[in-house]
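Handout, page 2. Input:
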Amino acid sequence: MKNNQFAFGKENFILLAISIAIIIIGFILLSGGQTTEETGFDPSIFDARRIFVAPVVIMIGFFSVIYAILKKPKDKTNE
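Output:
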């Protein structure tokens, strides 16, 4: 008897992929201009998008990953 049951169900993998995409979007929001000697001071490094929005999006992504891992898969045994 072979038991080919995974620890995660299909829904868990979908939630995990969405969560990772949210984290990537958060890091993209975090990126941007920089202050260098050639260009001088760039005030956009203190933009609300980088200070508040991006970290919140990243934290939502990490909490979503935890939820995707801890969510119990639906049991589909046909026995």
